[in-house]
Design a protein that fits this description.
alpha/beta, Rossmann fold, 6-stranded parallel beta sheet, 25 helices, 36% helix, aldehyde-lyase activity, EC 4.1.2.-
C-alpha cells in the first residue's frame, strides 16, 4: 500500500492526550446523536421533541468503549505508519463505526450525500436505525467493515483469515465480553497457533470488558484478575490490562498498552523474518475494562444506567417530559460547541489526529477486498479428466481426481500466495491428499516425528477440528481479496449454517453497493455424503444444507451436484473462477462408475440439466415416463432402474434427465439459472409422470418445481432412515434404490394394466433377497456391487 502518511513523531504529551479526549468526545456525541436526533444535530437550537426520533432503536452500551479504541488506533496507525483494519465483534453499536468513519472523512467520500456539514450531520443522524436508512449494527454498508455485527462469535476467526498471507497487515479485533461466551469465539483464542510471523500479518485482540450483556453480567467480567490473566496466558497470549473509568488516566494507559503491543508484534515479526526464528511466540492482546455505557446517563427514573446492564440498548426512552432535559444534558456534556465549527465540521486540530488516504480504517483496501483481488492462475481442468470410452466402463474416485487439479492450483500460484484450502481435519478423508505433494498443513505448534504434512508455511488449513474456525478463516481470507474453498463432511457443514447464511446476506447487500468491489465466491465442497456412511451411520447423514442455502437470495446462491469426475472438474473450475456467490458442490469420494466424456461433461455442466440420450429410448416421440436424477447415488440407481425397466418392458419409452445445477428447476423468474416454462416443459413434458431420484430431502424438489405445469412428479430422496449398514441398504431404506424406483415407475403407468405385476413381484423378491444377503455376509449383493450399464 502506498505510504500516504508521514509517520507520527509527536510524543504522548498532556496536550496530545487532551486532543485525543476531545476527538473521543466527538465520536461519543455522534454515537448518541445517531440514536436520538432527527434534526438539530449539534443542538444549535433549543432541543424539542420534534427534533427527536419517535421510535428509538439501537445500542449505546458498547459504543463509547469502541469509540475509545478507534481513536487510539488512529494514533497507532500514524505512529507506526501501520496498515491496519478494525473488526468489531460486539455486534450492535454500529453507530460507533459510522461516527468514526464520518469524522475521518471516509463516510462522506463513499456517500457524498452525507456531507461534512450541518446538512450532512442531519442526514447522518436521521438515517441511523431508521426506515430507508442504515441498520443499527456494523454492516456491509459501513466503510471499513468485513464483519457483520448482527451475529456474534466470528470476529477473531475473520481477523485471522484476513492476515493469512498478508505480512504487512495488522487487524485490531474488538471482542465483546458477551461475544466471548459464544462457542466460536471461545475456540478462536487458539488461532494464534496457526499464525506464521514470517509470512502472515498479526491480529491484535482487544477484549472489551464492560461487564454486561443484555440483561446479565458477563462470565469473564466476574472472575478474579489472576484467573483471567492465567486463562489468556494458557491460551498462548501476552495480555496487557487497561482498566478504569477516568478519561485522561485511561487515555494514557491505553496509549502505553497499544505501544507495547505494537512493539511486541514488530519484534516478533522481525525475529522471524530476519533471524529465522520459527518458535511460536506469545502474541500480545489487550484487555480493556470500562463501564458499560461509559460517559452516558448515570441514573434514569431512579435506575442506574452507566456501568449496568440497562446501558446496553437505549439509556433514555423519551417517554416522559423530563427525559428531554436529560437527553439535552447528556448530549451537551460532550461540549459539541468545542468540537465542530460553525458549518458543522470537525475542527482542523482534531481532524489532524486521524490518518489520511488509504491508511484510514474506513478506506483501507483490505476492508474492500475486491480492490486487491487478482485472478488465480488455473490449469486446464480438462487435463485432469477421466477417459470414458462408454458410460460406466471405468470407475474412479471423483475427489481424488479433483485433488490433482487443486494441487496444481497451489503450484501455479506459489509466488502469489493467494489460495488456501480450509476444512476441519478432513482433507485426507475427503480424498484431497494429492495436495500434500506440493504443500502441507499450517501448524505453528510443537511437531513430532510421527506427524504428517505439518509445516509453519503450510497452506492447508485443516489442523483445527472446528468448522467455525475454518469457515471464519475462509470468509476473512476472501473478504480481503484472496481465493479458497471449504471441504467438509456433508452432515457437519450444518455446524456453520448460520455463518454461511450471514455471508450470503453480506454478499446480497454488497451487490447493491457500487463502491463494494467483487470478491471471490465462497465455495463449499460437501463430501462424505449421506449415501455412504458404512462406519459412521445415522449421525453422519444430513443433506439439509441444500435446503438451507436454496432459501437464500437467488442472485447469490448456486447449488451443484455433479454425477461424476468430469462433471465435478467442470463445476469446480466454474466455481473457483466466479465472484460474489455462495457455491455449494455435493460430491462423491468413493469409487463410482463414470458416465460422461470430458466433452460431454462440459456441455452438460454448462447447461446444468439435460437429457442423457444414451440412457433414453424415447427419441423422436413422446416418452411414457421421465426418469430424473440429481446427485451421484441417485444417478447410479436411476440408471440401474432404467436398465431393468427397458429389458423387462421394452415398449416403455423412457426419458432420462440428469440435473447438475439444482436451481435450473426453479422458474427463470425466481432464479437467474432457472429454466423458462417452455424449456422446462420441453424436458419434463407437461403431463407425463416423472420419477425423480434426489440426493437430499424430497421436499426441496417439490418446492423448486411447484410452479411448473407438470404436477405429475414423484420425488424420492433421503427419509431419515439408515444407520451403520451397506451402501445399497442405505438406498433401500430410503426407497431410492433401483428396485423401489422400478416399482414406483410401474405404479404411475396405468396404461400397463396388469402387465407390470410380475416385475413388481420380482422387485419385491429382490428386496427380500437383499436383506437376507447383507445380514448374512455384511456386504451388498454381487449383482449390485458388480452392476454395469449395458444398454
Amino acid at each position: 500500500m502506498a505510504n500516504t502518511d508521514v509517520v507520527e513523531k509527536q510524543p504522548l504529551t498532556e496536550d496530545y492526550l487532551k486532543k485525543m479526549d476531545a476527538y473521543w468526545r466527538a465520536t461519543n456525541y455522534l454515537g448518541a446523536a445517531q440514536l436520538y436526533l432527527l434534526d438539530n444535530p449539534l443542538l444549535r437550537e433549543p432541543l424539542t421533541m420534534e427534533h427527536v426520533k419517535k421510535k428509538i432503536v439501537g445500542h449505546w452500551g458498547t459504543v463509547p468503549g469502541q469509540n475509545f479504541i478507534y481513536v487510539h488506533l488512529n494514533r497507532v496507525i500514524k505512529k507506526y505508519d501501520q496498515d491496519m483494519i478494525l473488526i468489531s465483534g460486539p455486534g450492535h453499536g454500529g453507530n460507533f463505526f459510522v461516527a468514526n468513519t464520518y469524522l475521518e472523512g471516509t463516510y462522506s467520500e463513499v456517500y457524498p450525500n452525507i456531507s461534512e456539514d450541518m446538512d450532512g450531520l442531519k442526514k447522518l443522524c436521521k438515517q441511523f436505525s431508521f426506515p430507508g436508512g442504515i441498520s443499527s449494527h456494523v454492516a456491509p454498508e459501513t466503510p471499513g467493515s468485513i464483519n457483520e455485527g448482527g451475529e456474534l462469535g466470528y470476529s477473531l476467526a475473520h481477523s485471522f483469515g484476513a492476515v493469512f498471507d498478508n505480512p504487512d497487515l495488522v487487524v485490531s479485533c474488538i471482542v465483546g465480553d458477551g461475544e466471548a461466551e459464544t462457542g466460536p469465539l471461545a475456540t478462536s483464542w487458539q488461532c494464534n497457533k496457526f499464525l506464521n510471523p514470517k509470512t502472515d500479518g498479526a491480529v491484535l485482540p482487544i477484549l472489551h470488558m464492560n461487564g454486561y450483556k443484555i440483561s446479565n453480567p458477563t462470565v469473564l467480567s466476574r472472575i478474579p484478575h489472576d484467573e483471567l490473566e492465567h486463562f489468556f496466558d494458557g491460551c498462548g497470549w501476552k495480555p496487557y490490562f487497561v482498566e478504569g473509568s477516568e478519561p485522561m488516566d485511561m487515555h494514557k494507559k491505553m496509549a502505553e498498552a497499544l505501544d507495547a503491543a505494537m512493539d511486541d508484534i514488530k519484534a516478533i515479526q522481525k525475529d522471524a523474518r530476519e533471524n529465522g526464528n520459527t518458535k511460536r511466540p506469545k502474541w500480545p492482546m489487550i484487555v480493556l475494562r470500562t463501564p458499560k455505557g461509559w460517559t452516558g446517563p448515570k441514573v434514569v427514573d431512579g435506575n442506574q444506567i452507566e456501568d449496568s446492564f440497562r446501558a446496553h440498548q437505549v439509556p433514555i426512552m423519551m417517554d416522559k417530559p423530563e427525559h428531554l432535559d436529560m437527553l439535552k444534558e447528556w448530549l451537551m456534556s460532550y461540549h459539541p460547541e468545542e468540537l465542530f465549527d460553525e458549518n458543522g465540521k470537525l475542527i482542523p486540530e482534531l481532524k489532524a489526529l486521524a490518518p489520511t488516504g488509504d491508511k484510514r480504517i474506513g478506506s483501507n483496501p483490505h476492508a474492500n477486498g475486491g480492490k486487491l483481488l487478482r485472478d488465480l492462475r488455473l490449469p486446464d481442468f480438462r487435463e485432469y479428466g477421466i477417459d470414458v470410452p462408454k458410460p460406466g466402463a471405468v470407475e474412479a474416485q471423483d475427489m481424488i481426481e479433483l485433488g490433482g487439479f487443486v494441487r496444481d492450483i497451489f503450484k501455479l500460484n506459489e509466488e502469489e500466495r493467494n489460495f488456501r484450502i480450509f476444512g476441519p481435519d478432513e482433507t485426507m478423508s475427503n480424498r484431497l491428499g494429492k495436495v500434500f505433494e506440493v504443500t502441507n498443513r499450517d501448524w505453528n505448534g510443537e511437531k513430532l516425528d510421527t506427524d504428517e504434512f505439518l509445516a509453519q508455511d503450510g497452506r492447508v488449513m485443516d489442523s483445527m477440528l472446528s468448522e467455525h474456525m475454518c469457515e471464519g478463516w475462509l470468509e476473512g481470507y476472501l473478504l480481503t481479496g484472496r481465493h479458497g474453498f471449504f471441504a467438509s463432511y456433508e452432515a457437519f457443514i450444518r455446524v456453520v449454517d448460520s455463518m454461511c447464511a450471514q455471508h450470503a446476506k453480506w454478499l446480497k447487500v454488497c451487490n447493491q453497493l457500487p463502491w463494494r468491489q467483487s470478491i471471490a465466491s465462497l465455495n463449499l465442497i460437501l463430501s462424505s455424503n449421506v449415501w455412504q456412511q458404512d462406519h459412521n451411520g445415522f449421525t453422519h447423514q444430513d443433506p439439509g444444507f441444500l435446503d438451507h442455502i436454496a432459501n437464500k437470495k437467488s442472485d447469490v446462491v448456486r447449488l451443484y451436484l455433479p454425477p461424476d469426475t468430469n462433471c465435478l472438474l467442470s463445476c469446480f473450475d466454474h466455481c473457483i473462477r466466479s465472484r460474489d456467490y455462495v457455491n455449494v458442490l455435493v460430491t462423491s469420494k468413493h469409487p463410482r462408475q463414470q458416465w460422461l466424456t470430458m466433452e460431454q461433461a462440459v456441455k452438460h455442466c454448462t447447461q446444468g440439466i439435460g437429457i442423457w440420450e444414451w440412457a433414453s429410448n424415447d427419441q423422436g416421440q413422446e416418452p411414457d415416463l421421465v426418469m430424473a436424477c440429481c446427485g451421484d447415488t441417485p444417478t447410479l440407481e436411476t440408471l440401474a432402474a432404467v436398465t431393468i425397466l427397458r429389458k423387462a418392458i421394452p415398449d416403455i419409452k423412457i426419458r432420462v434427465i440428469n440435473v447438475v445445477d439444482l436451481m435450473k428447476l426453479e422458474p427463470n423468474t425466481k432464479h437467474p439459472h432457472g429454466l423458462t416454462d417452455a424449456e422446462y416443459d420441453a424436458l419434463f413434458t407437461k403431463d407425463k409422470p416423472i420419477i425423480f431420484a434426489f440426493h437430499g430431502y424430497h421436499t426441496l424438489i417439490h418446492e423448486l418445481t411447484y410452479r411448473r405445469t407438470n404436477r405429475n412428479i414423484h420425488v424420492y430422496g433421503y427419509q431419515e432412515e439408515g444407520t451403520i449398514t451397506t451402501p445399497f441398504d442405505m438406498r433401500v431404506q430410503n426407497e431410492i434404490d433401483r428396485f423401489n424406483l422400478v416399482k414406483n415407475a410401474i405404479s404411475v403407468l396405468p396404461q400397463l394394466g396388469n402387465t407390470g405385476a410380475y416385475l413388481i413381484q420380482q422387485m419385491n423378491d429382490k428386496l427380500v433377497e437383499h436383506k437376507q444377503y447383507i445380514h448374512e455376509y455384511g456386504i451388498d449383493l454381487p449383482e449390485v456391487r458388480d452392476w454395469k450399464w449395458d444398454l
